[in-house]
Every structure is written in structure tokens, then in C-alpha cells.
From TrEMBL:
This is (rape) hypothetical protein. Residues 1-19 form the signal peptide. The keyword Secreted applies. One of its GO terms (molecular function) is hydrolase activity, acting on ester bonds. Belongs to the 'GDSL' lipolytic enzyme family. One of its GO terms (cellular component) is extracellular region. It is found in: Secreted. One of its GO terms (biological process) is lipid catabolic process. Keywords: Hydrolase, Lipid degradation, Lipid metabolism, Secreted, Signal.
Amino acid sequence: MKCLLFYLVFLELLWFGYGQSSNHQPLAPAFFVFGDSLVDCGNNNYIPTLARANYLPYGIDFGFPTGRFCNGRTVADYGAMYLGLPLVPPFLSPVSIVQNVLRGLNYASAAAGILEETGQHFGARTSFSEQISQFEMTIELKLRPFFQTPDDLRKYLAKSIIGINIGSNDYINNYLIPDRYSSSKIYSGEDYANLLIKTLSAQISRLYNLGARKMVLGGTGPLGCIPSQLYMVNGNNNTSKCVTKINNLVSLFNSGLKDLPNTLNTTLPGSFFIYQNIYDLFHDMVVNPSRYGLVIPDKACCGSGRYGGALTCLPLQQPCLERNQYVFWDAFHPTETANKIIAGETFSNSAKYSYPISLYELVKL
């Protein structure tokens, strides 16, 4: 285990050190990422959990396994690139102790959710509330020494981009597992969505009180379309590409999430929020894959069973060869190609999938 961790840290130092060599002026001073396995870049490598991706074939197109739940880069990686920043390191990695923390850190943790209990059957994971506490530690212990005055630090944080992609696990690793969690027995779909939004609102207020001002809220994708849900719900003869009941639940949450910026922008002075409509974009990729140069919209590139959704990608399993044709890498997560498309649409100059303005307009504020 020690040898594996040393190897991972060594590769991270090489990669993030290389990323620091860019001479381009970034659009924002830093990018701080919060969320779950969709954007986890290796934090779960350093905690006792079953939710890990630090083995091949994960990372096969990145060059080596990093802990990303993908064959290559995540949406957050491409987001950093669009901002003109190097890939931000995981908070729990020893790499984060060096000066590159000034360009941002990634706190995301696979199996994490808005609710503390979410994902507990995997073992350790860093919930969104705990990730915010880590951000507070970053400010006090890692960032403050680099700034001469508190006002300099305040301006730096106010100009930095805060990316939040959380909520998927509160469904697939909580509400949709009635044998393990009681939430679906206690709350209706609408009440549960309201609980998530209320909890998330309080958590975002904590980030604001720590100095965050420009926040990007990523909507939850159509979870009824992922291979794991297709495997569990659909029969062999079902021709539907998605499970409507599950997508309807997620839509209730996304509806509240889209309205949240309207409230927060008025109640938290000096802040600005944008909502990224991942649901509609990703759903269109599944229903109309050819529009995006994709071919296989419902099967995992690396998985087992029907749709590749019975088991997630196992160590040293042989993945599909045409990875750039697949929407899904494993039973839960998009391929690098899909992530690049999503980032291109949501981190671009266009506001088609961003509300009320685009990310580029946000960084100029």
C-alpha cells in the first residue's frame, strides 16, 4: 500500500508540476472543486473506502490510474483547462502542500453526498459538509501565508471559481436503495428534493461566509439513463434508453437547484451563482448520440452484465477499444469523450446550458 501511494504521489508531482508551466494568463486566479466521483481526482485514494478507482483500466487514457472514475479526464479537469489553469490536485494528496494550491484544490470524494449518511455503505467518504471544512482548513493553513493582508486573500477568494457537482449519490447511494436507507420510506420524491435543496443552501452559505463569491452549481444528470439503473430496472426486451421514474425524481431536485441562484444572489450580497443544466445536455447525448459523434449511448465501456451495469469496472478488466464512441465508461460515469463534450458546452462562451449567464461572463464580473 505504501509503495502504491508513493507511486501515485510521484506521478501527481510530475503531472501537476508540468501543468504549472503554462504561460497563459488564466481567466480566474483559482478553481476550487467540490463534489462526488464525477469530479473526484484522487481524494479517495487516501481514505479507507470501497469507492476507489486507483487501478487500471481507470486512467487508461490519462496515462496512469489517478483515482479518477473515468478512462481519462473529468469535467472538472476540462473546466480547469478552459479557465486557463493547470489541473488542480486532490486536497488529501501530499502534492497539495506545495505552492500550486494557489491555483486551486479539488475536495471531491466518491460516494459523497449532500446528506451526511449518503454513501456510508462504501465506508469512508468526505461529505459535502466535510469538504467545506477542508476548504476552511485550506484558507487558514495553506493560503493565508501567501497573502500580505486579509484583504488580499479576500479579493483572491472572491475572484476564484467555486465548482460544485453534488447530489447524484443522494439518489443512487441513498434514496434509491430502500434496503439500506430509510429516506424513500420517510420522504416523497418532492419532499426529498426539498430536503436536499434546503441542506445544500445552508452549505453554500457556509462557503460564502468563508469568502467564496463566484459559484457554479452543476445539475444532476439523468440518473435513469446510467447502465447501473438500466441493469436493475429494465428487462431484456425493454427498448427504452432511460428509466423515466428515476429521471422524474432527479428533475425535482434540478428544478429546485435551478431556482436556487435566484434566492442566493439576493440573500448573499456580492455573490453570483450560475446553474449548469447538465440534465438536458446529457439526456440529449443519450437519446441522440450521433449529434455528438457518439455511437453507444447505453452500455458501459468497462463493466459486466446487461448494459455493463451489473458490476463496475474491475481491476485489469479489458475495456472496449472504441472508447471515444461510448457515452459511459463504467456503470455510473461518463467517458472522457463525454466529459469533454459536457465541459465544452457548459464552460464555453455560450449560455445555452448555463443560467442565467455563461461561465465566461461570470469570470468577468
